[in-house]
From TrEMBL:
GO molecular function, one term: hydrolase activity, acting on glycosyl bonds
Alpha-L-rhamnosidase C-terminal domain: residues covered: 582-640
Highest rank taxon of the organism: Eukaryota
InterPro entries the record matches: 6-hairpin_glycosidase_sf, 6hp_glycosidase-like_sf, Bac_rhamnosid6H, Bac_rhamnosid_C
Keyword Signal on entry: yes
Coiled-coil ranges (or none): none
Taxon lineage: Eukaryota, Fungi, Dikarya, Ascomycota, Pezizomycotina
Organism: Aureobasidium namibiae CBS 147.97
GO biological process, any: carbohydrate metabolic process
Record flagged with keyword Repeat: no
Protein name from the UniProt record: Six-hairpin glycosidase
Alpha-L-rhamnosidase six-hairpin glycosidase domain segment(s): 239-460
Amino acid sequence: MHFSHIFTIISLGLAVHAQTCWENLICTGPLDTAFPGQWEANIFAPDCRTVFPVSILSLANASVISKWPGSAQISGNGSALVFDFGKEVGGLATVSYAAQGSGALGLAFSEAKNWIGLWSDSSNGRFQAGDGAIYSNFSASGNYSYTTDKAHLRGGFRYLTLFLITNETASTIDINYVSVEIGFQPTWSNLRAYSGYFDCSDEDLNKIWYSGAYTLQTNSVPVDTGRIFEASGWNNSGALSNGSTVIVDGAKRDRAVWPGDMGIAVPATFVSIGDLDSVKNALQTMYDHQNKDWSFPEAGPPLLQQGSDTYHMWTMIGTYNYLLYTNDTEFLDKNWDRYTHAMEYIYGKVHQPSGLLNVTGVRDWARWQQGFNNSETNMILYHTLITGAELATWQEDTTGLAQTYTSRATNLSTAINKYCWDTSYGAFKDNATDTNLHPQDANSMAIYFGVVAPSSASAQSISSRLTHNWTPIGAESPELPNNISPFISSFEINAHFVAGQATRALDLIRRSWGWYLHHPNGTGSTVIEGYLTNGSFAYRNSRGYSYDESYVSHSHGWSAGPTSALTSYIVGLAVSGRVGSTWTLKPQFGDLEYAQAGFVTSLGKFSAGWNVTGDGRAYSVWWKVPEGTVGKVTLPPLPSGKTGKITIDGKSFKNKSIRKKEGLTFEIGGGNHSIIVVSK
Ligand SMILES: *[C@@H]1O[C@H](CO)[C@@H](O)[C@H](O)[C@H]1NC(C)=O
Ligand SMILES: *[C@@H]1O[C@H](CO)[C@@H](O)[C@H](O)[C@H]1NC(C)=O
Ligand SMILES: *[C@@H]1O[C@H](CO)[C@@H](O)[C@H](O)[C@H]1NC(C)=O
Ligand SMILES: *[C@@H]1O[C@H](CO)[C@@H](O)[C@H](O)[C@H]1NC(C)=O
Ligand SMILES: *[C@@H]1O[C@H](CO)[C@@H](O)[C@H](O)[C@H]1NC(C)=O
Ligand SMILES: *[C@@H]1O[C@H](CO)[C@@H](O)[C@H](O)[C@H]1NC(C)=O
Ligand SMILES: *[C@@H]1O[C@H](CO)[C@@H](O)[C@H](O)[C@H]1NC(C)=O
Ligand SMILES: *[C@@H]1O[C@H](CO)[C@@H](O)[C@H](O)[C@H]1NC(C)=O
Ligand SMILES: *[C@@H]1O[C@H](CO)[C@@H](O)[C@H](O)[C@H]1NC(C)=O
Ligand SMILES: *[C@@H]1O[C@H](CO)[C@@H](O)[C@H](O)[C@H]1NC(C)=O
Ligand SMILES: *[C@@H]1O[C@H](CO)[C@@H](O)[C@H](O)[C@H]1NC(C)=O
Ligand SMILES: *[C@@H]1O[C@H](CO)[C@@H](O)[C@H](O)[C@H]1NC(C)=O
């Protein structure tokens, strides 16, 4: 269903309610989540596709001056009130007002509180004239209703400033009604119908998990709302993909498909909102716009930026992730030929004698330096080859591709370890010749993608070295100095978890995502694109660049790493075979007392949880997964370090290996199971 169609339906509904009983608008019946429970209270998504402000702020000092609905008058030229929706929203705004005199009602939008005012935060482009405001002009006293036109859909904001521009000293406006028709997640009538959930003993982690999930919803948008660059103002009417819904990088901007961002956004989508239609359409648009030399664009249309070896490979990794979660073999059949050509295109950049990839498509996530045999790119190639081999197997390829890709991966891993490892420092360098820079991206990916084994001395050294970049509000990227990237930090937390360093991973989640969650100027409901180590929102505004600070996106799916990591590594439940035909359960307690999570695939519901006693002398683990699946369970060692007595589904037995550092691993079939471990 296309956005225009949905909007018509909602508008009609709204017209009936407008100005009369709108505050009583009833939108949805009971929640429709796959796993009902008290954790649903943490869902940020509204009940209703029509949303209203919750309070009014003074423009002068940004303090709350009244609740809304209530009375709201602006009087005289330049007077303004700020309507706060209480969380990130996005879509088409409607304002009804009674005006005296003549003039214009201005509407200006902002995600962060810093940029409330008569001028919107920036979404169009750093080098354009600025977003400014949109106006509802009136030439005489009367009652007016104004709705944003489709091109001016505002994809993401929390604050709407309404102001009066007039030449008449006696002119006033009484605001009677303000609403937004949510534009995102266009195919869902109930925005709270999540297929996944998460709950643990730390309320901040719960909110962070759900802010990642809500961010992904705001990034799943109607396919005709892509950003078109304009000399000034903004225009969100570009064609993004076929289908009805597509995942883009950010709510406010860029509003384009960015496959690298999907490396974090898609695993997080799978465990939370479960909207894989948006993922399929995003990937298909990349295949539809593949170039003649078989390279993929860096970003989808209308942007269609080119020239990125890393983002080329992220489309390929995205294909694997999508197949893992859906087993959509029709999609793979349709695109397999293009995928294999894309593999030859990128592998053609591997040169002897080093056996490393030489980057010539130098665009990337935002790191300052890219090119030559950059380590991050080689880590991504390793993962591309490993996942490519798996795809070839799933595709039942008989030409030996799986073997070819696997042996290339093995050789590449050897080359990376030989040329890029810095023995004296105990982490990877930025490339084979670099001596000083030990980047956050390549080192995090080395562990996450398995270029080093999780329990190896190298992995443990990298995990420890990464903490040297930490500041009180997050990890500074050495490859993007002065900046904190929650995108690359998402890889870092995954790396610490894979290395078995759960407490370290939780520490970084709390420092970085916790800082933003509690920031008084933030959205309080989504995850931010990036920020500076000095605590300002001016991501990338350093090294002589002077970007418009307000351009930063405050709802960016590439920062949703904690959402998948908490499910996959704290609860420890993850799919390893297509649609969960095989799965793993490997809880890590960190400093938590309990945790549970669940998600859905075409096979059914998967969920698991655990409790650990305060003194660490006992714990219990349970899981409920579809019959016919096969799992690998790894029980953690007792936190007390003692030997345990294990009771599985009511039957007890002793096993000394629970004492080992790696815990106890065994295979088990699907169904409902529970285990209790008590120290002897
Ligand atoms: C903020 O401004 C409003 C008027 O716009 C005023 O009533 C209020 O006292 C101000 N608050 C502070 C803390 O200055
Ligand atoms: C009205 O206020 C706006 C915004 O502050 C200002 O730019 C403009 O010059 C003012 N117009 C008049 C006639 O004072
Ligand atoms: C104010 O007056 C100027 C000059 O006559 C005119 O150009 C402008 O459009 C008027 N503004 C409004 C908001 O009526
Ligand atoms: C929030 O924004 C206001 C207005 O721009 C600024 O004065 C204040 O320092 C900011 N607060 C924080 C904690 O950054
Ligand atoms: C509406 O009012 C704004 C602000 O005064 C002005 O910039 C704009 O040109 C006006 N638009 C029309 C169509 O008169
Ligand atoms: C706006 O409508 C209300 C009733 O709906 C009416 O009482 C009021 O006079 C109208 N205002 C103007 C300026 O026409
Ligand atoms: C938005 O862009 C489209 C496509 O270029 C163009 O047709 C339309 O006129 C623009 N609308 C606005 C309001 O700028
Ligand atoms: C829609 O699909 C057609 C046919 O594959 C393709 O040519 C076109 O570029 C696609 N549109 C977008 C916006 O991706
Ligand atoms: C390696 O990449 C650099 C750009 O980073 C380029 O100048 C050089 O020609 C490339 N070498 C080969 C062998 O392709
Ligand atoms: C290797 O990495 C360093 C640090 O990013 C960079 O300054 C240098 O230019 C790179 N070397 C080459 C040959 O690209
Ligand atoms: C995936 O789909 C294919 C083709 O429909 C089917 O043969 C295969 O069994 C499926 N695999 C899983 C794990 O569901
Ligand atoms: C903790 O244990 C209790 C008692 O066995 C159980 O009811 C509860 O569901 C467990 N919680 C989690 C998160 O697993």
